[in-house]
Every structure is written in C-alpha cells, then in structure tokens.
C-alpha cells in the first residue's frame, strides 16, 4: 500500500480485511458515508480497548475477592484440593468449567494450581456464582466479598448480568457503537466499589472511557482537525475522512 494511503481504506480492502457484513453496522451508523464509517470503526476499536482495560482491573479484583472467602488462601495449592473442585460447593456446570480450565493448564505443561485456575476461569464462571442456586453460599461466604453493597445477592448479580454479555462482545471484537457504553462503565465502577472503594477510585482514575466517548464520530470541524493532527486523547488515533 502507498504510504500516502495509510490513513484511508477502500471498499475492496474493507471486503478483504473486515468483510462487508461486519462493516455494515458502521456504514449504517455513518449514514453510508465510507469516511465516517471508517472513523466509527477505528473509534470502536479504541473504545473497546480502553474499556477492556477497566474490565481487566475489575475482573482481577472481583475474582480475588471471591477466592479469598475460601480460606486458607494458598495460591500454590493444587486446584483439585481446593474449593474449586469441591462438589459440595459448586454445581456440576461450574465444576465442568473448572475442570476445563485445569485441562487447559495441563495441556500447556503447567501445574494447575489454585491461582492459575482462578486466573483462567471466565467472567461467566464468577457471574454464575451469584445465581439463585448459590444463595446459601452467598449467605455463608460470598456476601463478604462485597462489603460495600447492600448485602443483597441480587445487587451484585444484576451488575454482573449486565456486564457479562457486554464483556463478551468486546472479547469477540463486536461493534459496540450502539451499546450503552457509559452505563456499562458505571456498572463496572460500581461493581468494583462494592468490593473495595479505594480500588474503584483507583480504577476510575485510570479509565479513559468517558474521555474517548466524547470523541465518537462524526466530529465537529475543530475536532476533526485535531484527530488528523494526532491530538486526540490517550491511545486514540482514529482517522476521519472528508
């Protein structure tokens, strides 16, 4: 590709690199203007990246807070000897997810320690621990992982239920241009706050989501110029045409 064209993309390249069906949502949102659609596609990548950064902080905080409720916490303990493989604690479906994580770790030639399995379990696994089926576990242990909440399992469960499908969209690089991004960001910070207020403030201070939201194309003339000059917020380098 000619260096002069590195800030643009043709319809043929869209078909080859992105595919027309995937790009369709951006064309619709950009009023079928290729330049605006391309800007939206770039912006979608940027907002997804910075949102996933916040998810990473919160997800690690969450899973460690839950794991801590099953003392003693021994990170190098074999997972099969921990609560993660206890059929008196977890449902068959949850155990299936644990054993799948163990198998994956063993295929990599590593020892499936408690810490490694905790790190390999999906957000969906932790969300499921707040289902009604685990209400007794909530009463006995899990409520302590959310000391700043109301004490209701449903409070944390509702936040995670909204966040889980949104997180999956990000993980699969799906368009989120029409999603309630600001609300999901609020949900994420609130989930972190239920676990640890200081951690929530620390995470929010590192988040660029609100700032990047303000740069959603189409942009005004002055912002379009700033985007071209590379003066957009941290990590944002989307290209606006026209």
Task: Provide a descriptive summary of the structure in words.
This protein is mainly alpha-helical. The chain has a domain at 51-212. Helix content is 60%, strand content 0%. It is built from twelve helices and no strands. It is elongated, with a radius of gyration of 21 Å.
Short key terms for the protein model shown above:
12 helices; 60% helix; mainly alpha; single chain; 0% strand; 242 residues
Strand content: under 5%
| Overall average pLDDT | 90
SSE-based structural type: mainly alpha
> Which runs of at least 5 residues are low in confidence (pLDDT < 50)?
238-242
Give helix % range.
55-70%
Q: Can you count the helices?
A: 12
Order of helices and strands: HHHHHHHHHHHH
The gross shape turns out to be elongated
How far apart are the termini? 20 Å
If you compute it from the alpha carbons, what radius of gyration comes out, rounded to the nearest whole angstrom? 21 Å
Major beta sheet summary: none
DSSP strand tally: 0
């Amino acid at each position: 590709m000619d260096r002069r064209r590195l800030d643009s993309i043709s319809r043929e390249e869209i078909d080859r690199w992105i595919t027309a069906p995937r790009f369709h949502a951006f064309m619709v949102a950009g009023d079928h203007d290729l330049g605006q659609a391309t800007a939206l596609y770039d912006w979608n990548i940027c907002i997804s990246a910075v949102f996933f950064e916040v998810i990473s902080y919160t997800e690690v905080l969450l899973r460690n807070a839950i794991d801590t409720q099953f003392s003693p916490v021994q990170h190098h303990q074999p997972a099969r000897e921990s609560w993660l493989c206890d059929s008196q604690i977890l449902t068959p479906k949850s155990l299936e997810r644990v054993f799948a994580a163990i198998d994956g770790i063993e295929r990599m030639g590593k020892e499936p320690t408690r810490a490694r399995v905790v790190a390999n379990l999906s957000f969906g696994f932790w969300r499921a621990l707040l289902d009604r089926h685990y209400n007794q576990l909530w009463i006995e242990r899990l409520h302590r992982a959310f000391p700043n909440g109301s004490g209701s399992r449903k409070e944390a469960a509702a936040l995670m239920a909204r966040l889980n499908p949104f997180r999956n969209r990000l993980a699969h690089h799906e368009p989120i241009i029409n999603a309630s991004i600001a609300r999901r960001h609020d949900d994420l910070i609130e989930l972190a706050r239920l676990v640890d207020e200081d951690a929530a403030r620390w995470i929010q201070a590192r988040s660029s989501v609100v700032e990047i939201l303000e740069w959603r194309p189409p942009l005004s003339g002055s912002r379009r110029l700033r985007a071209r000059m590379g003066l957009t917020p941290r990590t944002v380098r989307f290209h606006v045409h026209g």
